[in-house]
Every structure is written in structure tokens, then in C-alpha cells.
Design goal:
The chain is mostly helical and about 90 residues long. The protein has five helices and no strands. Helix 3 crosses helix 4.
């Protein structure tokens, strides 16, 4: 019986995992993204790592945000508008 870990060289997995954050952030070239995507399709351990990191990012994004008071938003907008007016003069 074939082991699911046998199908890839350790260096392929190292490369894929090293570039995982770039892959998740959309920072890779199309060619590199395709290579990593193909590797993930064929390599269960790397796909598990990708799924974990992707899920963690979504969880952090959904839970870690601050509500900004309306008054602060207005003061910032006014300050930005004031900077724009000063540049025109």
C-alpha cells in the first residue's frame, strides 16, 4: 500500500510551505501560484497546513477588529478634508 507522504519530495513540501503566506496573500506570480496550487492538490499534508492557516486567518479577521466611535471617524474625516483644502491653496 502506498503512503500518502511518498508522492512528494521533502524539498517540494518545504518550498510550498515556505510560500504559503505569499500564496494566501495573493503575492505570488501566476506561474508560482499554479505550481503551489498543483502541489496542494496532490499533497495531503501540505493541503492540511494550507487549510489550517487559511481558517486561522479568517477566524482572526472576523474576531479581531475594533469599532471606531462615530465622533472619531468624523474628526478624522474633517482633518483629512482640511489637509486637502490646504493643498489646493
Amino acid at each position: 500500500m502506498s503512503d500518502k507522504y511518498e508522492t512528494h519530495e521533502a524539498s517540494d513540501c518545504d518550498d510550498a510551505l515556505r510560500e504559503l503566506y505569499g500564496f494566501l496573500d495573493g503575492e505570488l506570480t501566476d506561474d508560482r501560484r499554479h505550481l503551489i496550487s498543483s502541489h496542494l492538490d496532490d499533497c495531503s499534508p501540505c493541503l492540511e497546513a494550507f487549510d489550517f492557516e487559511n481558517e486561522l486567518r479568517h477566524l482572526v479577521a472576523s474576531k479581531c477588529h475594533d469599532d471606531v466611535p462615530d465622533g472619531l471617524r468624523e474628526r478624522i474625516a474633517d482633518a483629512i478634508a482640511g489637509c486637502d483644502d490646504a493643498e489646493v491653496e
